[in-house]
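Thread: "does anyone have the structure for this chain?"

Original post by V.I.:
We have the sequence but no experimental structure in hand. Need at least a predicted one for the grant figures.
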Amino acid sequence: MIRYFLAGLVGLVAALLILPPAVAAAKSEQPAMESVLTARLDGWLIIDTDGSVLDLGIETEVPAALRESLDRTVRRWRFHPIVIDGEVRRAKARMRITLAAQPEGEGYRIKVDNAIFPSPADTSVTGIVDNRSAIISRRRLLTPVYPPELLRAGVGGIVQLVIRVGRDGRTEEVLSRQTALHDVKGTDFVMRKAARLMEDSAVRAATGWTFNVQLRTETPDPSDLTVTVPVVYILDESERHSDRTAGEGSPALWRAEVRTARRSIPWLRRTEGERMAGASDLRSGEMFPVSDWVHFAENGVGDSLL
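Reply from O.Q.:
Generated one for you, tokens below.
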């Protein structure tokens, strides 16, 4: 069910009007919001030594026509060969595909919105980042305060935070990369301000977060100490549980999102930031590195399916 964001609107706008002029001006520079339906599909693929897709499986339950279209599309993808212990090898990778659907004529056009590849041991989905230079896990991540204006209005969503972790495990820098409001409609002005309230709450909490850091090198790259963490604002805790436990055989769940554009990360190289997951790709409780261990040679994102 899509909620029209009217309840609580007066309080929200009033809170925004009392911001200091300099802060209000900065917060008005919001990226464009996009309305879209999304669904996440989990599965796997086998990448051959030449980077081609040898085989794949979609574990999430989807209609037969969509499954057939996905199979044809993913088999056309090309990757950089996987190097393990200095040798190019055939490799099996976990895969999560995010689909996006938008109205077109009397129906919807469905495309691949993004594809990410969790680590081979699925450590990312359990809140552990294990990359070439460091192992990072959660130590103390206090839950952000639900913005009361959004709580009263029944508005939920997800904020994707990107965090640069210090050697001591403390948060050194944090930025909200993308925010998606769920199952809600409203004016662009109100949607942007609602997203900003959610982002401010998440960033404020994350500045005090701490992590366990195990370094493998004395000179880690900033990307090796950067993680992305979703902060989920949800009214019904049963939805959070079902989101976390979605797995093989679960049906694809479509949800309406109003989301910001993805922001660049100032301390990362541009190509690193472009490879990151987005807010629509993540589930509650997960933590991902800057980039996947699998890299597209020919990007499959944006491919139309139906």
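V.I.: this helps a lot. The first strand starts at residue 3 and ends at 4.
O.Q.: and Residues 3-18+31-298 form one domain.
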